[in-house]
Amino acid sequence: MNDAQLLRYSRHILLNELGVEGQERLLASHALVIGAGGLGSPVALYLGSAGVGRITVVDHDVVDETNLQRQVAHTLARVGMPKAESIRAAVAAINPDVHMVPVVQRADPALLDELVPAADVVLDCTDNFETRHAINRACVKHGRPLVSGAAIRMDGQLSVFDSRVPGNPCYACVFPEHSGVEETRCATLGVFAPLVGIVGTMQAAEALKLLTGMGSRLTGQLLMIDGRDMAFNAIGLPQNPQCGVCGQPQG
Description:
Layout: H1 3-8, H2 10-13, H3 19-27, E1 30-34, H4 40-50, E2 54-58, H5 83-94, E3 99-103, H6 109-115, E4 121-124, H7 129-142, E5 146-152, E6 155-161, H8 171-174, H9 186-189, H10 193-212, E7 221-226, E8 231-236
Parallel strand pairs: 1-2, 1-4, 2-3, 4-5
Antiparallel strand pairs: 5-6, 6-7, 7-8
Helix pairs in contact: 4-5, 4-10
């Protein structure tokens, strides 16, 4: 690190859990953030401010005025701009040294097979099951840790899925792809604005811990957040040996 970086990241360097070595790991890391909305905003801002050297952000959507109630990386001046481009501008305003790569595309399996292997950690900040399952399959296939967050109405969820560790579940173990679960989105049911900030910030924290070698106690756990009472409850998640994603050899 140069003198400017030592000053910028001095409060991280003072932490025994991080120090110079941990900060250098962050500077050399690559995070893949899929979704640049309510969760993706705090995720990208905190990863960028913390000094993750390369951040790829994938989102096919554009900024809309209805996003501004909760998607804090975007501004009124950037309405109509692709969200991935808007988040690049937001992070650059905080830390121009971060190499931000906006990808204005839908995260389909082909794109994920291209991007996931190049990342050190993947953060799922999307809001639909189809994309979530595609991300999960790619992470299991390529052996990348996945930090998954969700928020709707007053309820949030957070988990870390790491198929590199034997016996750990994947997203499909917990939420089977053809389980018949009804998909809900904030566009129709609403979402409490600070809740996406809470979940997204915690996603960023878990990713930073993984990148610096601190690990994550949320691996194999599902943290449920009740925004009404500000209550946090965690439950253990077993691997499903019959899972069609991680319970069978990956080709």
